[in-house]
Design brief:
alpha/beta, two-stranded antiparallel ribbon, 5 helices, 9 strands, globular, disordered C terminus
């Protein structure tokens, strides 16, 4: 009697972009092992999607670049404490044109777990999902949102087996619409964790 199969999970020592090349290597290996034809990369600047495309050249695997809403502005503090405005590079015309040239499908729109900004108000349901996914890794919530965005946008059918990845986290999952996320039979399923950081920072606020 077979109880199942044994598959490894790769644990990074830390989180972040430094892990991207290894994540791509692990994702390609698992895609070929499971005969998966859809890989969704959550990316702010396009680098992950471009690196994956280069590594998968001359294959039939479809690559999707999921990203933040068009021209969404973020702010970060420099070492001197000054606030800098950042717009993800996936909103730049030259990056979008390069996606198109390479056959990478851009997935851009509302992020399912992102609040609508209302002064002094929070969406408790979204925050609860956000915090729960962040217990596993910050990248997991990006992977889940990437899948939901791809289905909501008509790029992938509900129920498809896909791989979703960020720089340091990757999963095999059954896709679903965002409104069906927790549906008892049609909802999203995380089937396998390919890699994740073993140490990471749990965030306690949803990005604006």
């Amino acid at each position: 009697m077979s109880y199942g199969v044994s598959k490894s999970i790769f644990y990074y020592n830390s989180e972040g972009m430094v892990n991207l090349p290894k994540t791509i290597e692990l994702v390609i290996e698992r895609a070929k092992e499971n005969n998966i034809n859809h890989i969704i990369v959550f990316t702010a600047d396009g680098d992950g999607a471009f690196m994956l495309k280069n590594a998968l050249n001359n294959t039939e695997i479809n690559i999707y670049a999921a990203t933040f809403p068009y021209k969404q502005v973020f702010h970060s503090l420099d070492p001197n404490g000054n606030k800098n405005k950042i717009v993800p590079k996936t909103s730049l015309q030259e990056i979008r044109e390069e996606f198109n040239r390479l056959g990478i499908r851009l997935v851009q729109g509302v992020m399912p777990l992102q609040d609508i900004i209302i002064p002094n108000a929070k969406d408790v349901k979204n925050q609860t999902i956000h915090y729960t996914l962040s217990l596993i890794s910050g990248g997991l919530r990006l992977c889940i949102q990437a899948i939901l965005m791809a289905v909501d946008g008509g790029h992938i059918d509900p129920g498809e087996t896909v791989i979703a990845m960020s720089a340091d986290t990757a999963i095999v999952a059954r896709s679903s619409l965002s409104t069906w996320l927790f549906h008892p039979t049609e909802g999203l399923e995380i089937n396998e964790i390919i890699c994740k950081p073993s140490k990471f920072t749990i965030t306690h606020s949803i990005e604006k």
